[in-house]
Design a protein that fits this description.
- With 297 residues, the chain is an alpha/beta fold.
- Among the domains are: 82 residues, Winged helix-like DNA-binding domain superfamily/Winged helix DNA-binding domain (Arc Repressor Mutant, subunit A); 106 residues, D-Maltodextrin-Binding Protein, domain 2 (3-Layer(aba) Sandwich), CATH 3.40.190.10.
- Helices cover 41% and strands 24% of the residues.
- Strands 3, 4, 5, 6, 7, 10, 11, 12 and 13 form a 9-stranded mixed β-sheet that branches. Strands 1-2 form a two-stranded antiparallel ribbon.
- One of its GO terms (molecular function) is DNA-binding transcription factor activity.
- It holds the Pfam family HTH_1.
- Keywords: DNA-binding, Transcription, Transcription regulation.
Length: 297
């Protein structure tokens, strides 16, 4: 790598972010931490602003550093794609970064990766599972699997599935606390809820064709449907989660569905989200097409 050029400086900066330290980036590049520090300082002097705040324990990014990191990732990804296209005449190859929610990724996306990799051996799949929303335009991922209605954005989305919602509890919890018969009975129970901002604060129901919502409460919140389902299975309370995430536990009796007569039947769409257009990398198109193919099949 030519660390004397701007692209080299950008790669150093992204590696510092990836490893969380100058020493981690230095090991990855076979350099010394002092060399990495000089490169960062040179970049800051050229730009005219501080990008990193360094202490003996950790590094943090300034607002300008975060902006530089997003731009650097995007530029490096574009450069890699141009080189890949020229080298392989547009055939699917290179690194594909895929972001998926923890439970859905583990249960639905991971089982597909082996078949996709066998079909496209020149693509290196970099799979990241977590419930945080990654910045695709900022270069944090090439494809993200997202649930629910999507906000307006420059990104392209393709529908790859949908899931309903189900209220569940363990037989042990119900034996100790009783089984809710009507939606309002939930006020007497410990309801396990999502803690992230986009989650609806209420649980919806339908009675005699009329839909309404209840503001439930509980002592535990989590950022993952898989976490809430696990807590429900352990008898911690009642959860409302995606049906796909608890299908096996319902089948074997570890969890019991509740209040199904009042289920409003709300369905959450699942999309693959990416940067589209004529310059879309062949590896991204191949992966999205593969997901759609498996969904339709």
């Amino acid at each position: 790598m030519d660390i004397g050029g701007r692209s080299g400086e950008m790669e150093v900066f992204t590696l510092v972010a990836e490893h969380g330290s100058l020493s981690g980036a230095a090991r990855a590049l076979g350099l010394t931490p002092s060399s990495i520090s000089r490169i960062i300082t040179r970049t800051e002097q050229r730009i005219g602003t501080r990008l990193l705040l360094r202490t003996t324990r950790a590094i943090t990014f300034t607002a300008e550093g975060e902006a530089y990191l997003r731009g650097a990732r995007r530029i490096l990804a574009d450069m890699a794609e141009v080189e890949d296209a020229i080298a392989d005449q547009g055939a699917p190859r290179g690194r594909l970064r895929v972001s998926a929610a923890l439970a859905h990724g583990r249960m639905t996306i991971v089982p597909l990766i082996a078949a996709f990799s066998a079909r496209y051996p020149a693509i290196v799949v970099d799979l990241m599972l977590g419930d945080e929303v990654v910045d695709i335009l900022g270069g944090e991922a090439d494809v993200a699997i997202r649930f629910g209605e999507l906000p307006d954005s420059p990104l392209t989305a393709r529908h790859i599935g949908s899931t309903g919602q189900v209220i569940v509890a363990s037989p042990d919890y119900l034996a100790r606390h009783g089984t809710p018969v009507m939606p309002h009975d939930l006020f007497q129970h410990n309801c396990l809820r999502f803690n992230f901002r986009r989650a609806a604060p209420d649980w919806p129901f339908r009675v005699d064709g009329r839909e309404f919502s209840l503001k439930v409460a509980g002592t535990i919140e989590g950022n993952s449907g898989e976490v809430l389902a696990q807590l429900a299975k352990l008898g911690a309370g009642i959860a409302r989660v995606g049906a796909f995430s608890v299908a096996q536990d319902l089948e074997c009796g570890n969890l019991v569905p509740l209040l199904e007569a009042y289920n409003p039947g709300d369905v959450e769409p699942i999309h693959a989200v990416f940067v589209g257009g004529t310059a879309m990398p062949a590896r991204v198109r191949a992966f999205v097409d593969f997901l759609v193919e498996r969904h339709e099949g």
